[in-house]
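[09:14] KT: can someone run the structure on this one? pasting the chain below
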Amino acid sequence: MVAAALQRARQRLLDARTPQGHWVGRLASSALSTATAISALKLAGPHLDVSRREQADLRVARGLQWLVLQQNPDGGWGDTDRSFSNIATTVLAIAAIRIAGEHQRYSRTITSAEQYVERHGLVEALRRRYGADKTFAVPILTNAALAGMVSWEHVPQLPFELACFPQSWYRYLRLPVVSYAIPALVAIGLVRHARRPAWFVPLRWLRTGLAGQALAVLQKMQPESGGFLEATPLTSFVVMSLVAAGRMDHPVVQRGVDFLLESVRPDGSWPIDTDLATWLTSLATTSLVSDGSDVGRLLERSCLQWLLQCQHKHVHPYTGAAPGGWGWSDRSGAVPDADDTPAALLALRQWYDSLVIGEAERQAIHDAVVGGLGWLLDLQNADGGWPTFCRGWGKLPFDRSGADLTAHALRAFKAWQPVVQQGMAASPRVTPKRIDQAVERGFRFLAKCQRRDGSWVPLWFGNQDDPAEENPVYGTARVLLAYEAWARSQSAEARRARAWLVANQRQDGSWGSGGGQQPSTTGSVEETSLALEALACHAPCAESVHRGARWLARTLLDEQVRAAPIGLYFAKLWYYEELYPWVFAVAGLGRLVRRGWLPEVSKVPAPAGQAAASTLKARS
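[09:31] RB: done, structure tokens below
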């Protein structure tokens, strides 16, 4: 049964490739994204040419039809069709219906939703959800103010004038938003200034005088696609705010509208982001060879070339990031970060060791890796951990150091350490000594942020069944892989972490937000696979691993495998990715095979593109 499950998962993953040999995947449609896109297109519509106005009107009408059908029985909306209702998405959905002028048509929908908001409160509920972080709370309040749901006095003024300082100064200015939200800082700051200017006249004059300069900064940050970070919510907030501020003819608005018109799905919805192609390709590559297979015999070389081309070769206009990193997608709106860069480096290590690539390809990998390792080394925070985008920005969510990011970086350093020690890098940025120092600081950070119960909590993944919406299974499993990579699996931290994972296995053998003592939670393919990968080859965990493998096999053989909404995008925005169950399952089961715990997978797959590439043979 386990062998058949692994075979199915491997083949499902291989079949999901594009004709070019890499992966794109499919993100969940998002009620929050759809709501913000509706508001933005409706407000911008009257200022567009006839053809684009007609397109916008059609997108708004179809988006509303889709959105109304997503309302939960409690009157609220969740971020995906598998998510619990939350105050943010519900407020934005109400605002979209009102701005579209359809509150009479959908009166029952609005009434039920407003009752949900009344039960939870609007301003106070947002404050409870986001705390001191204004990155998402202020855009939501702005959208609500544009819909007449709150007054402008409830919308804090974002200091958009600070964007006029040099980009290298941002981390010292202690901005009230995270590093990726400068476009929102500018656009929402401008509309708040236009609708309710400061009472202090000199400050009002200063902001008026700097508006044009701030807009120039915003325009420079906008990618070729028009979508900031390829993200529908952020782009929508920028468009609606600039239109409401009287800047409807600005090029940022026009390009943002084009992005929204082009990124809608056939059913009328929008995802949170265009895709996670680079992230998925990196993860899928390492997953498929977790059993020891040669990647060059399994995947086309075009996949390698595509991944190399995804590396950022110039200073990034959005965050000012140096060259060398990878973002989550090959699209122009992606930004290099400390999760996708280690993932790409780990995938490239598999290609570097392949017996079927030539010296020219190996040299190209070498050059890319030197840049990637140097980029990661330069990003490390003073506390020893790694942040997502920018070094030293502060403690706001998604800017502070993260256990999952740090562990991923440490694994990448270990993968390339032998090559670096052989004199790989001709750059003083990448030396054995510098890597060793960074690794020691990284493990000190991980030891310090480990919870008393032995778990670690990640930045970019959560579990909606968890009271704090955290995902310690994901975080703990990812960190344990770093401890094992660096031969620290017998450290006190690693032993406590494994004990935590075993103790929090559910009674049915799966892993979710908690153990079997919490019947309201459910196990997922993703979390169970991650736990199995982390516990592999540890004999004291054998019984737990076999129970988990049996549950996973039964689930994978079910034709109704469903991705779980464990992904956390910016500002607690939930998502699921259709390929996550298969990527994580292949990694977990494949690693067990390599350690001799399960029936073997053929170590020499058939040529790339043939179904036989994933054929399994059971050990007699």
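[09:33] KT: thanks! The beta strands are 29-30, 270-271, 567-569, 573-575.
[09:34] RB: yep, looked fine to me
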